[in-house]
Design a protein that fits this description.
The chain has helices at residues 19-30, 56-64, 67-72, 113-123, 170-175, 237-241, 247-257, 265-272, 301-304, 313-330, 335-355, 359-364, 370-385, 388-395, 460-470, 477-494, and strands at 11-15, 34-39, 50-53, 79-83, 89-94, 109-112, 128-132, 136-142, 146-150, 155-158, 160-163, 183-196, 204-210, 214-220, 225-233, 278-286, 292-293, 296-298, 422-424, 534-536, 539-541, 547-554, 557-563. By secondary structure, the chain is α/β, with parallel strands linked by helices. It folds into two domains: 11-368 and 395-454 and 498-547, FAD/NAD(P)-binding domain, CATH 3.50.50; 370-394 and 456-497, no CATH class. The strands form five sheets. It has a seven-stranded mixed beta sheet. Strand 14 (214-220) and strand 15 (225-233) form a beta hairpin. Helix 10 packs antiparallel against helix 11 (335-355). The protein is globular, with a radius of gyration of 23 Å. It starts with 10 loop residues before the first strand and ends with a strand. 53% of the residues are buried.
Length: 564
């Protein structure tokens, strides 16, 4: 992709060095733009749990020329087994490696997040400047430029600021008006960490369901380590607040909730207390009708996280980076047109993959009673014995988002450069940075609020589940439960969106509302205070709450400020 005719090179600041930020830097550098990536961690944050590529995400990596590099680093996970308290597999769904149809619960492209980040980072090449140990604390913009203020007190002038700082984006909070709440939750929480691998840990992911809306998953990614996931269905204030507490308190919460779960719970809880990596989060989506304002634009999870249960978090970030870069390369001299094109081209895809996450189906997949758990296991075993998951995978299409298609590619100015990226330490000034006396938009932490979620269209599998449920009226309670669980199991075993793809760790804040369109008065923006939990390798460390106030200059200049 290269800029259109008569185009100029843009100075682009990308806040966040995750999957979306690295992919966007790759495409913009190929388009001839001057790209700087700032990452608040002191080094490349190549950590996290197992992620996967699905649908158009695979095509996005192929267009980057990195599919072979990804294949070389894949995790050998052969499938998913549903086990009982004695560890016996009651049903097993193998990965679809036929090269045809749709991925099952295990993708053909399973990879550790850290490995994917390294691949993307190395591919950005020397034309991308990486600055570690620094974050964007604020910004101000007018019709000509955006001035970013950094955590070390320096400032820099750019043509565009891209917020790729994750689900808990502080830049997004400064960008959006006060009454626009981007978070949508389903009452599900999860925690994950690493424990030493034992001889019983196979290359098939084990899933163990426990009464009380609980689930334990175990998957191994190398000869010495095993990943553990605890999933909990709970809609309580304590559960929503726990992710902002100190790590020790989070671990106590999860140990208490799973104390009587059985299977290998004791081993997993003991390993949790000494694990070098631990992360706890509430499962939410980011839904907002506003992805940009002026010279600031949202990308990746900051714009449209689909949640771990979609299986499309990483893939959505890769696709979104491609679409945004394509729009900027086509219209580098007309940012309003470029950002409008980005929105109109990507939003249909995002709406479809987010709508595939069905809260009712997810809750049914976390039964609360022992009888429901047993019925679920029986129904899932029957579905697997009839080879329904295999049949559904081979007959379905892998592409997500309906009939959505990538924008037509443009010829590239230069071939992909996979040499080492140019890296600058946190003490080095940004190229072209200047000290300014303007008031910084100290980008405060994000929060969620209560609200109503906009109803999403149901896919055909879910509609079929509802029809089967309705047809059981008048049957005995046990018969109705069995039929309902069979329908749910069929949906779960044939839909990748219904089980956790377990994306990268990301700052996730609890809330319930679906965003709404907002009308804003010229020269005035509302502001709100909130809390934001962040992560640092193995733990989530919440910063102190901040308060944000707004200031405006004129119709042609918007200055934003946060005071701590």
């Amino acid at each position: 992709m290269t800029p259109g005719s008569g185009a100029r090179s843009l100075r682009v600041l990308v806040a966040g060095g995750g999957v979306a930020g690295q992919a966007l830097a790759f495409w913009l550098a190929r388009g001839g733009h001057r790209v700087t990536v700032v990452e608040r961690f002191p080094a490349l944050r190549a950590t996290g749990a197992q992620v996967d590529l699905r649908g158009q995400g695979i095509e996005a990596v192929r267009r980057m020329g990195l599919l072979d590099a990804v294949r070389d680093r894949l995790v050998d996970e052969k499938g998913v087994a549903f086990v009982d308290a004695r560890g016996r597999a009651r049903a097993t769904i193998m990965a679809n490696t036929s090269g045809q149809g749709r991925q099952t619960l295990t993708s053909e492209y399973e990879i550790m997040r850290g490995d994917l980040i390294r691949i993307l980072h190395e591919a950005t090449g020397p034309d991308v400047e990486h600055v570690f140990g620094r974050s964007v604390d604020g910004f101000e913009q007018d019709g000509h430029q955006v001035v970013a203020h950094f955590s070390d007190g320096s400032s820099g002038e750019f043509d565009l600021l891209v917020s790729a700082d994750g689900q808990g984006s502080r830049i997004r909070r400064a960008l959006l008006p006060e009454d626009l709440d981007p978070y949508w939750r389903v009452g599900i929480h999860m925690a994950y960490w690493f424990v030493p691998r034992t001889a019983s840990d196979t290359d098939v992911r084990d899933t163990y369901m426990v009464p009380g809306g609980r689930q334990i998953m175990r998957r191994s990614h190398n000869p010495t380590e095993t990943q553990v996931y605890f999933v909990l269905r709970e809609e309580s204030a304590e559960a929503s607040a726990i992710h902002r507490q100190p790590v020790e308190r989070q671990q106590e919460f999860w140990a208490d909730r799973f104390r009587d779960a059985g299977w290998q719970t004791r081993r997993f809880v003991d390993g949790m207390r000494t694990s070098p990596f631990f992360y706890s989060q509430e499962v939410v989506q980011v839904r907002t009708d506003t992805w940009s304002e002026g010279r600031v634009v949202l990308a990746g999870d900051a714009a449209h996280c689909a949640s771990p249960y979609s299986g499309m978090g990483v893939s959505g970030g890769l696709v979104g980076a491609y679409v945004l870069a394509d729009a900027l390369n086509r219209h580098p001299g007309d940012l309003p047109t470029a950002l409008a094109r980005y929105d109109s081209a990507l939003r249909p895809f995002v709406d479809r993959i987010q709508a595939e996450v069905n809260p009712r189906l997810l809750r049914l997949g976390l039964p609360t009673t022992r009888r429901a758990v047993n019925a679920f296991r029986t129904a899932t075993a029957l579905a697997c014995r009839l080879h329904l998951p295999d049949l559904a995978a081979r007959l379905a299409k892998e592409d997500r988002g309906g009939d959505w298609q990538f924008p037509l590619p443009r010829p590239t100015r230069r071939p992909p450069d996979t040499s080492a990226a140019r890296v600058r330490c946190s003490s080095t000034e940004l190229h072209g940075a200047s000290r300014t006396g303007g008031r910084a938009v100290a980008v405060g932490p994000a929060r969620g609020g209560e609200g109503q979620a906009r109803a999403a269209p149901r896919n055909r599998r879910t509609a079929r589940t509802r029809r089967w449920s309705a047809s059981t009226t008048g049957r005995s309670s046990l018969a109705k439960m069995l039929l309902m669980c069979f329908a749910t199991a069929l949906s779960l075993t044939t839909s990748a969106c219904a089980m956790p793809a377990l994306e990268r760790p990301s700052a996730i804040r609890p809330s319930t509302s679906r965003s709404r369109g907002v009308s804003r008065a010229s020269g005035s923006l509302s502001r709100r205070s909130s809390n934001c939990a962040t992560t640092c390798g193995s733990r989530a460390v919440p910063p102190s709450a901040t308060r944000r106030t707004a200031a405006t200059n004129s119709a042609t200049s918007a200055t934003r400020c946060l005071s701590r």
